[in-house]
Amino acid sequence: MKKRGNHSTLARATMRRHISLYVMLIIPMAYFLLFKYAPMYGIAAAFKDYNIFLGLKGSPWVGLKHFARVFSTPSFFIALRNTIILNLGDLFFTFPVPIILAILLGEFKFKRFGRNVERIMYLPHFLSMVIIAGIVYQVFAPTGVLNVIWATIGGGQPIPFLTKPGTWRITYWVASIWMGAGYGMIIYLAAMSGINRELYDAAYIDGAGRFGRIWHVTLPQLRPTIVTMVIMNVGKILSIGFERPFLLSNVLVDDASLVISVYVYRMGLQAGMYDYATAVGIFQSVVGLVMVLLANALAKKLGEEGLF
Fold it and tell me: How far apart are CA 226 and CA 198, in angstroms?
């Protein structure tokens, strides 16, 4: 009993000493409780014929009826295909850009210039998606800046950046690079700051040039960070933000811009099919979890640490 009392006294003393840290935890804990855990109650709607007047408790159970509807609806598979295509494009085209930028900035001799480049590069991350979409339309629209320049130099017909599915996807990925590359670059710059400089000196003594030092020192030291980011991106292969595809889309490219988040919005809020939309959301979350577990297991098989 005396030993237990000493432990409790020590715990109270530790809490008093770090009370400011515990107070700071209130906001993130409240965020997760209100916006992550409390909405889980609504998952039951996917297994019921949800009626807004009867409420979640009063609506009758229907089992897996809505999941069967999901997999028999052609528009769902269009949204699924577009989500995978856009996310794979982000993974293969936009994911390497922050790594390349971080390495290039790390090689700059003029550190003041490098810091200014950093500020300019990560600024778009802090802009509203509405502003980003407005800038994209001003630049890539049929009457936008690029097409005006194209017409001025005698290019002929406007380039359909936003009016044809293929070019719309490329424009989407370009906007993704511009918006997120700078912020992602900071992650890799932080990882590079922890690399032991003696490794570069040893590589230099062994005769490695600049590219040799990047290949044999920088990239191997960045590999754990890269693997972690890849696992997180693979886990989000079916999870895509609502704002960017919704704001950049139009009726001419609906076959390319209809993604799961927009599909859930249309089925749930616009069509009032809350139970069906919830079933789509559950499918999306379960597949995302499975993808994270598989990617983590594969990383461990390849000798990396993984996420857990």
Answer: 22
